[in-house]
Amino acid sequence: MSGSSFGNIFRITTWGESHGKALGVVIDGCPAGLALSEEDIQVYMERRRPGQSQFTTARLEGDKAEILSGVFEGRTTGSPISIAVFNKDQRSKDYSEIASYYRPGHADYTFDQKYGFRDYRGGGRSSGRETIGRVAAGAVAAKLLKELGISCQAYTLSIGNIKASSFNEEDILKNPLFMPDMSAADKAAEYLKALMNEGNSAGGIIECRINGLPAGIGDPVFEKLSANLAKAVTSIGAVKGFEIGEGFNASYLTGLEDNDSFINENGQIKKATNHSGGILGGISDGSEIVFRAAVKPTASVSAPQRTVNKDGEEIDISIKGRHDPVIVPRAVVVVECMAAIVTADALLMNMSSKMDRIIDFYGR
Amino acid sequence: MSGSSFGNIFRITTWGESHGKALGVVIDGCPAGLALSEEDIQVYMERRRPGQSQFTTARLEGDKAEILSGVFEGRTTGSPISIAVFNKDQRSKDYSEIASYYRPGHADYTFDQKYGFRDYRGGGRSSGRETIGRVAAGAVAAKLLKELGISCQAYTLSIGNIKASSFNEEDILKNPLFMPDMSAADKAAEYLKALMNEGNSAGGIIECRINGLPAGIGDPVFEKLSANLAKAVTSIGAVKGFEIGEGFNASYLTGLEDNDSFINENGQIKKATNHSGGILGGISDGSEIVFRAAVKPTASVSAPQRTVNKDGEEIDISIKGRHDPVIVPRAVVVVECMAAIVTADALLMNMSSKMDRIIDFYGR
Amino acid sequence: MSGSSFGNIFRITTWGESHGKALGVVIDGCPAGLALSEEDIQVYMERRRPGQSQFTTARLEGDKAEILSGVFEGRTTGSPISIAVFNKDQRSKDYSEIASYYRPGHADYTFDQKYGFRDYRGGGRSSGRETIGRVAAGAVAAKLLKELGISCQAYTLSIGNIKASSFNEEDILKNPLFMPDMSAADKAAEYLKALMNEGNSAGGIIECRINGLPAGIGDPVFEKLSANLAKAVTSIGAVKGFEIGEGFNASYLTGLEDNDSFINENGQIKKATNHSGGILGGISDGSEIVFRAAVKPTASVSAPQRTVNKDGEEIDISIKGRHDPVIVPRAVVVVECMAAIVTADALLMNMSSKMDRIIDFYGR
Amino acid sequence: MSGSSFGNIFRITTWGESHGKALGVVIDGCPAGLALSEEDIQVYMERRRPGQSQFTTARLEGDKAEILSGVFEGRTTGSPISIAVFNKDQRSKDYSEIASYYRPGHADYTFDQKYGFRDYRGGGRSSGRETIGRVAAGAVAAKLLKELGISCQAYTLSIGNIKASSFNEEDILKNPLFMPDMSAADKAAEYLKALMNEGNSAGGIIECRINGLPAGIGDPVFEKLSANLAKAVTSIGAVKGFEIGEGFNASYLTGLEDNDSFINENGQIKKATNHSGGILGGISDGSEIVFRAAVKPTASVSAPQRTVNKDGEEIDISIKGRHDPVIVPRAVVVVECMAAIVTADALLMNMSSKMDRIIDFYGR
Lengths: 364, 364, 364, 364
Hints:
Strand content of chain A: 15-25%
CATH superfamily of chain A: Chorismate synthase AroC
Strand order of the largest sheet of chain A: 1-2-3-7-4
Distance between the termini of chain A: 41 Å
Number of helices of chain A: 8
Number of strands of chain A: 18
CATH topology of chain A: Chorismate synthase, AroC fold
Helix content of chain A: 25-40%
CATH architecture of chain A: 4-Layer Sandwich
Shape of chain A: globular
Radius of gyration of chain A: 21 Å
Largest sheet of chain A: 5 strands, antiparallel
Oligomer: homotetramer
Largest interface: A-B, 117 and 117 residues
CATH class of chain A: Alpha Beta
């Protein structure tokens, strides 16, 4: 059980290593009749593409997503959608040295402990390239959500200690760090330049908002919408924390501060505030869903570090090659895609929740 | 799909509502030959029992766990272990009023939206009593882990802004808040008394440590040990955040600060620090696993609140009845139990990871 | 992984041993709002009850199904439905001898090989009493199907070589063997009496028909409706074969004989014949679904048999106690219940198959 | 939920349509360290290849399996193994006519009912080419089993009424029908020629034997080894029946005839006979496992048939193109591969069945 599948009805299975022949995903359970093209997917692939600024690696991946099955005459058929990206830039010689030692902050040691050996080329399965399958699947989920009037949007909330203090949606795509605050983005850029000069790296926080989701989606116990978002996001490499709504801050509030009053807004039941982050008891409450993911600093730094080699000897290493000083900007689209997958799956799971709706469905 | 099952090989299915006939759990996939008694389970049940101090509800649940199947002559048989707790104190009259309106911070509204109606007695399935099944199953998982020399221990790290500033393991069970720092526990008690007088409530943070787990446990992508812990913990009602190791703080560190150097300690590979919280790339690295859960303040407060009734009319309510001013102390054992379940499951899943170990297993 | 769960959305988990405290089932994923009472379930329990004729054991089980959760004010709530039957007649002394040897045709030896020991009281988990959970869950599934105008009906097609040669639905419940042909039932009764006198036993074939199922239910590859029926039925103890439509006979036909022509019947597409048994490519075709299960003769016979004891010594045994000379009549309701569970699950799974229906569902 | 995944720990997900870009499979949960090459897989692909005799279609598929991930330096890594076969011979013009009507015995009508439309090129997802993924995965499972000394072997037991009356293992690969009896193979060939001249087709029965499996594999209730074999085999297109050991014949036997006595053979517990087909109570008993699958005649026949078109008008059709007069020989390897997948999965699932073996495993 190597755990490469995610989701219940809208279920994805990703595969591939950093320097293998290809990477991809199989999406099983996507409804038939969704208009889908390779272009729909490519738009998302571009957002995780490196080489877009000085803060992402210069490696020109040019990842091109190919749909191999499940789409006919421009629409999904209900059959599994297989999407592959073939690796073109396999400069494995850059990575051969790391076969001999364990990089701090990476999974080299744990893979060896688990499997007895590892595909050491560029991190193999533990590489950030593993997210290609997630993004391809997320693009399909996002297309499905769009048909239902639902959107997911992620962005960089902070890089190190520099936090966006305003939210201008249009700014997000205007800066290479995907921050909704140009001024904060400028400061973060300065901070990153300084770190790069030291051969060091930074982390940050990603925030994601889901809009348009009706109330009633998600399940009460283990398949809580919040619990599935937590797993989906924490399963992304380098994510060390997850919170929804007030999150950790809720632990400092009192009940009277944290509770959201229900109100009647023009005949509709709404909440006066949204401390809950759009989920109550694991089920969407009709408000905007807001959650955050904490991303650790890039583990690959060029400054010297102490570690051990496979023989257990302590050595000093300096990691060469092309590495992002911060992975947060490239992880933004991954977080957004995982949110889309969780949301699409929860919507499909919810269709069988009420007997009268089922009778209605089959009575037609 | 109401999502009441959790785990892959060690798989639990919980059932029951606050004021139904009984609550319980079925554990499928527990290995045969584990010594197990009702007493083993009752010890854990007592830790989530209310009525233990002024900060937990006076309701005398006296929850008695009965093993209905899967154990023969004191040992598990490999068949599903069914454990039930029959409700004795079903004062449903206390709760009848809440049928008519939506309590802020509760799942009343979202259940109605999802299912069309709800079992309003004491919160029904969304009650904290749902955790009875989790704790019973966690007791079994903990017994299994003990046989392998592995322990999970959770405790209260903070209540509101009052944080434990020292860690004395023996103090944890000496104060009703389960804090590892008696001085902080005293201050937190004062804080809670003040809130109770106002009809208000508090939240807090729970920390959990897993010791004795070998390196190599967990899977690389969606079944990361960290991702399963995140889901397990975030699926507990009132949990709004999860973090592992440095967690959100990792987003403020640099790579050189956050990376843990590998060292040779008397011939064994260890880490000089443990910023990772014991997991690298989703797989245990042999260090102590440390994670935290943020718990929101109790939603049921007796001070007046504004909300709407089922007809959508805005009303002012005051929630009566017996409610904990803070649920953190009672949630401690739930967090610990979910950690035990995730860990036991990951250990069983890992047994098929290497071909040579499989040949060895069947070659005997 | 002891494999006690079945189904995808409508998912059941059974538990319990022949002579433990209780047996039961948890049904997760049953839609909210289905009218359900203990009486609905008891009707099915009675059909598997022993002591109804001279061909079923004299043991008075009097199994009484109790609903412990998931139903409120007469309707399912969407929460897991826990149903238990408490054992009353636990004469375990009858069974203590079998602890020392391996009964031919039973699972004693294989359980010992798998688990190292076994609950030997009445067969433990491998007893026919394991089907109590299946029948309780099947009663709920059947109630759900009824709301959609769908019925499942099983009956005894043959006992040994005596086969029903006519089909009179009203006869099925008029004879203790549940055959749709009174004349065949009489002959089978004679045959069984003769076998009982010899301390021997018989097998037979059960047939099941599902009516009212619309076309389009089931999935194309591994979750074929036929494949799930095959698993569901073959998972019942003593079932050694499964076939649908022409079944094994199809292997002797030519394509022109076996193919069902599509026809236009008053403006509706129908099939001129039903060799397929109502399923094409794993998906229901709108015709009656017809399948059969082959049941082996009861393994417990009182005539002497040779076997080995736990020390490997060959011995001659004679199995005492109350045993059915044929289990086919009591298995009829189990087959019917498994068919209902598979069908209900397939219907719920199918709701997310088409994008336009999903938009329609959420657009309301 | 389109149901394209199968297995619990050794879990496969197949994808692809007859005339899409490619078909393939992702195998998740294959242990690390298994020696594996494309040649290992190609050997199995060749066995399902058409164009090998006059009884299989002339279409030269030349299916070439490519491993895209999960193998490094000749060994599996524990990461998902993605295998693809790119379609070369996409003569879709041959199939365009079938878009307008529903072929008898095919899934055209049921797909349209389920999904609203279908990929009509060569049957799309319901084509026999869907089995490419099964065979590729089965080759990997078979390699794994070989390391444990376990083999699966399938062959043609009968074509129409012509049944192999002897079993000569070496004959199986010597005749294009894969029968273990050359004389029967000759008669069957004559029979098929006659049917081809009439534009008709035949079915048959496939038998499969699994040797070397230790006792104790499989689970007692829903994950019975027999139940999983039943599902695996019945999920293959055109399979209409499944039986194990005596199968349907068991229904005609008495208990004394059908029960297998346990005996002591040189200090080892064995069975004197094998009516059970190697499985008791769903768990392997150490004997050879023997099961059979009934395959219906090829639905595509060139002789005229009546059907309806999409407008519901009755028409007479004659199916053109290249079609096997019998699919049994090509299905032999598919049955064998599904058996290997089920067996490998059951072996991995069984590793966590006993506490003492787990302690032993982790104590090393």
